[in-house]
Amino acid sequence: MRILYYVYIVAFVALVSCEKAVESTSLASTTGKGGSLTRFTIAGNYLYAVDAHFLYTINITDPAHPVKAGQSDLNFDMETIYNYGSYLFVGSRTGLYIYSISTPSSPRLVGEAKHARSCDPVVANDTASYTTLFGSSTCGPATSGLYVHDVRNVQTPFLKKTIPLNNPIGLGMADSALYVCCGSEGLKVFSIKDAYNPVLIQTKPDGHFVDLIPYGDLLICRVNNGLKLYDISNRLAPLFIKEVTN
Amino acid sequence: MLMRKALLFLSVAIVLFACFKPIREPRDPNGYNPAIKVWGYKPVYSTETLAKTIAYIPAVEPVIREGNIYAFGNYIFQIDPGAGIHVIDNTTPASAKRIGFIRVRGCSQMSIKGDKLYTNSYNDLVIVDFTDLSNVREHSRVKNIFPEFREYSPIAFPPDKGWYKCPSMDSLVIGWVMDSIPQQCYYQ
């Protein structure tokens, strides 16, 4: 229970700092926001990077002199990294791995949820993590879909629900909305008011969606041949604003 | 007895001969044969210093490969894996547009904190100052921190499917041109 309380505090701080990142960019300590397919993430004074075999921890307190603080020797075929509060969620071809960065210089593996081989970006909050698994000839045989894990206890992520989807790739969430890119099928908008039971609200077949960033009231989508921007003041009803073509 | 041995030898020889058919021609599109020349991609190399030089181009550059996106302040960035980072002005989303390109050869990832952009140029971590778009420059660098990012750099592979000349790993590839090449590596 105490851990949960702590997670809530961290989550609150993280949310507050996220808001700042959107509103004010003049502060030297603000970070931006990446899509879900990234291998780089900055939390506090550390840059965390994953290649297929290693998790690198780099101290960037002094950007003029970045220092490598550590390199994990774990081999998970890692593909994506996502920071939430004092945790790193690492998506790999074999499972979801959760690292604690309560000691930022040395991430510690605290939980994992293995799955069939596949490609999988992940986003998370203090109650749930959402992973898209994309089974294919290069990624592995897993059933393609959205996988929802209960991560209230990060040591034992528990699979709560699987929603089959064709070609799901990048994803992101804003409050009670979860956005999932489904390639040429379009952008799927789920309500996650009930965190463990996402409900499909609508599909926007506006292009070939690959990845996205919910950025305040703006949803930035990477599609084939450009970007598409949506107004998500109404979280569950994205309104098309602009296409930036290549 | 001798006859039986001779027969055995003969059958083994026939089996072996069947296995080692001379491969003058590929039996399938993946039949590698460096002796054969085909039309395909050839790597263009550069010196390490030139390949890893950071520059800002205040103009719209063509997108070669579409990579990860990143949002910071009034900007959206999109990685062009292997080539650099496209900069999109998002001050007013309704009129968002591409405005420039940060040349970071060999890059594949990025993140931003404060006025510093963290990316990779091949195997190096590069920190780029972009407080002012008219003065984008390298701030610092940690060499060879990501060995895998060099070996599997997107630019180490040709832009299209097909035969290509396997790049030499002791050099830095900065691009590809079409030429007559040995049927050596196949990209699919």
Give an account of the 3D structure.
The complex is a heterodimer of chains A (246) and B (188). With 246 residues, chain A is mainly beta. In chain A, 9% of the residues lie in helices and 47% in strands. Mean pLDDT of chain A is 86; it is low at 9-26. Chain B is mainly β. In chain B, 14% of the residues lie in helices and 43% in strands. Chain B has 3 helices and 13 strands. The N and C termini of chain B lie far apart (54 Å). Chain A binds chain B through residues 21, 25, 27-35, 37-42, 47, 49, 51-54, 56, 58, 60, 63-66, 68, 210-213, 215, 218, 220, 222, 224-225, 227, 229, 231, 241-242, 244, 246, and chain B through 62-63, 66, 68-74, 76, 78, 88, 90, 93-98, 108-116, 118-120, 125, 127, 139-140, 142, 145-146, 148-149, 152.
Question: For the residues shown, what is the average pLDDT of chain A?
Answer: 86
Number of strands of chain A: 21
Shape descriptor of chain B reads: elongated
Coarse morphology of chain A: globular
Largest chain-chain contact? A-B, 48 and 42 residues
Order the strands across the largest sheet of chain B as they lie in space. Answer: 2-6-5-4-3
Query: Whole-number radius of gyration of chain B?
Result: 24 Å
Average pLDDT rating of chain B: 84
Number of helices of chain B: 3
Strand portion of chain B: 35-45%
Largest beta-sheet characterization of chain A: 4 strands, antiparallel
Poorly predicted regions of chain B are 12-28
Residue share in helix of chain A: under 10%
What portion of residues of chain A belong to β-strands? over 45%
Main sheet: strands, sense, barrel of chain B: 5 strands, antiparallel
Helix content class of chain B:
10-25%
The topology string of helices and strands of chain A comes to: HEEEEEEEEEEEEEEEEEEEEE
What distance separates the N and C termini of chain A? Answer: 50 Å
